[in-house]
Amino acid sequence: MEPMPQTPSPPLSIRLEDPQRVPEHDPYRLARIRFGAANRSDPTCPDTLDLALPPLAPNAPVEVWRATEPVHGGFRDGVGYTCTQQVLFGWMHLDEDRFGDDLAAAAEHAYARLLAFHREMGFPALLRVWNYFPRLHERHHGLDRYQNFCLGRHRALERIPLEEGDLPAATAIGTRAPGVLIYFLAGREPGRQIENPRQVSAFHYPARYGPRSPSFSRATLRHWSGGPHLYISGTASIVGHETCHDEVSAQLREILANLKAVMRATGEPPLAAPEAGPERLSLLKAYVRHAADAQWVQAGLEAALDPVPPLLLLRGDVCREDLLVEIEGLYA
Ligand code: 3EB
């Protein structure tokens, strides 16, 4: 009998799922990301991470990355990973005390290791990175910890052959529990980096935001056989390089305009269609500084988007003290 012709699909899906329905083991699972009070990782169970990002709505879902082929994984020199023929998920969970509270040194160490790891594994294209660490606004050596993080990340990145235009999409958010957790998605072939015409590229921010600019692009567009994915970075109420609005609902509207602008900047239908906006995305993750603002974020999204995509509201600190909310998105 001839095999059924299969519709090609991208090598992974990323979805929010009911924790009751997520099995303990799944041979096709790349990642299971849970949200709560503490950071936890287990080298013997490298597909699972617990992040210290408390959900701000009842019945918190789990984020599940599922592959189209069986996954294998392991843990090597501080890096946990899972992979298929086409994609690599990897993470590092660092105890900062080893670095004497020097987050620049910790970030430089983590990035040097992660960058070497995904290349050695044969997945040279870093598509998307998530960075979580505590006490984001605390000051050290004349800089806040987010600026120290940017400095260390920059130092590791400048040692490898990488152009500005190759920087991955990213998220960097403050937690309230110890531990630095960084995880990423890498592939065999690069995606296309997308910038937002409404915003100065983060890697060109002026020095007043820190001695080294944040090393990330606004989004990565990857055409998998089977369809495009757009991985949109954490997006805040920034126009040009400046924070706009001091009220959460106004910041949310600016974020929605930025998300739409990033989609348009791909220049490709259906993402760039004039009528296409964030309601076309398949996942939104909103980080809210003050838990009490979650209701305004939820209400604002419901008023602006029909339908509201699958949404996860998390408590997290955004990297400038005047930013109250930040939203990342996925089109898949
Ligand atoms: C901004 O646009 C908001 O340093 O990796 C968003 C996403 C932000 C990623 C990062 C920072 C980062 O500047 C902050």
Automatic annotation (TrEMBL):
Under the GO molecular function aspect, what terms does this record hold? lyase activity
Bias (Pro residues) ranges: 1-11
Q: Which domain of life is it from?
A: Bacteria
Concerning Pfam families, the annotation shows: FkbO_Hyg5-like_N (PF21168)
Q: What keywords tag this UniProt record?
A: Lyase
Extract the InterPro entries matched here: FkbO_Hyg5-like_N, RutC-like_sf
Query: In the UniProt record, does the keyword Nucleotide-binding occur?
Result: no
Name all Chorismatase FkbO/Hyg5-like N-terminal domain ranges.
63-186
Which parts of this chain are annotated as the region Disordered? 1-21
Protein name (database record): Chorismate lyase / 3-hydroxybenzoate synthase
Query: Whose protein is this, by species?
Result: Ectothiorhodospira mobilis
